[in-house]
Design a protein that fits this description.
The protein is mostly helical and 292 residues long. Among the domains are: 92 residues, Arc Repressor Mutant, subunit A, CATH 1.10.10; 92 residues, Winged helix-like DNA-binding domain superfamily/Winged helix DNA-binding domain (Arc Repressor Mutant, subunit A, Orthogonal Bundle). It has 13 helices and six strands. The strands form three sheets. The chain has a two-stranded antiparallel ribbon. A two-stranded antiparallel ribbon has the order 3-4. A hairpin with a 7-residue loop joins strand 3 and strand 4. Helix 1 packs across helix 4 and helix 2 packs across helix 4. The longest helix has 37 residues. 13% of the residues are buried.
């Protein structure tokens, strides 16, 4: 064997992608595949033009190579296929050959989830983020044991706390859930059954924040009304300031304001009393004559 024999470069980007997926111990994303391809430097004797094509490959070219490799495996019917789970790609055996693989590896049949756990998992998958009480409202039974099982299997996880009273935990699925069921993303849940549409996580989060938002808005409106009422009362109580610095006293109350509207014919008695005083019949008049 000639030690100086040059290894020919791969014939296509699809060939490189297949080799990387076969050699990797973990699933690889399209970005990781592209970085691995572009990291290789040309060596002496390599076709620099071909190597430059691989070193400058784009994301679209990598995705095209991944699709081509998957179709090639389907056509070859080689007993394994390309699978995508949680946005990462891997090579795995086809389900139809699973019993033979388990027999060779002396593996027991994988345990299956019970119906109750599957129903709980389905509700969480389609309605996440969701609280335990909401799951129980849908199922009509206690789901504490089911949620504990799903957490132990790492099929669901805690995603936070809701803004509802008590701040209960929110649950959602994990990447292991997608990998276990062979789903590339949660969007594929809608394709499984068109009658079951996955809820929008952003809208769900807004629903949890809505009660708090309404409370804050109501408190702000109440404070604004109280401030406006206080300002109106203050303006009514303060006297008007004149340009020269003086103030105009507030108008008198209705009880203190008197208008004399007595007819003139009823004022004769008052006139007679005044005339008597002038003639000296009054108390003051007598005193004056005595003094003289």
């Amino acid at each position: 064997m000639n030690e100086n024999a040059r290894i020919p470069p791969p014939g296509s980007l699809q060939e490189i992608v297949g080799a990387l997926l076969f050699a990797s111990e973990t699933p690889l994303t399209a970005a990781e595949l592209r970085n691995a391809v572009r990291a290789v430097e040309p060596e002496e004797g390599d076709d620099k033009e071909v190597m430059e094509v691989y070193r400058t490959c784009t994301s679209k070219e990598i995705e095209s190579a991944i699709r081509g490799f998957g179709k090639a495996l389907e056509v070859a019917r080689a007993g394994f296929a390309l699978a995508c789970a949680a946005g990462a790609y891997r090579i795995q055996t086809v389900p139809s050959c699973g019993r033979y693989v388990r027999a060779m590896l002396k593996m027991d049949r994988p345990s299956r989830l019970g119906r109750a756990s599957l129903e709980t998992l389905a509700i969480i998958a389609y309605r996440q983020p969701i609280t335990k009480s909401e799951v129980e409202d849908i199922r009509g039974v206690d789901v504490s044991a089911n949620i504990k099982t799903l957490l132990e299997l790492q099929l669901i996880r805690l995603t936070g706390r809701s803004e509802l009273p008590g701040h209960p935990f929110l649950y959602g699925t994990t990447p292991a859930f997608l990998e276990h069921f062979g789903l590339a993303s949660l969007q594929q849940l809608n394709e499984l059954d068109p009658t079951l549409q996955r809820s929008n996580p952003r809208l769900k989060a807004e629903q949890y924040r809505k009660p708090v938002k309404l409370e804050l808005e109501e408190a702000a409106e109440t404070a604004a009304r109280a401030e406006a009422a206080e300002a109106a009362g203050k303006d009514a109580a303060e006297p008007e300031v004149k340009p020269d610095g003086g103030t105009t006293p507030p108008p008198p109350a209705e009880d203190d304001f008197f208008i004399d509207d007595t007819p003139e014919e009823f004022d004769d008695d008052d006139d007679d009393e005044e005339e008597d005083d002038e003639d000296g019949d009054g108390e003051n008049g007598g005193n004056d004559e005595t003094d003289e």
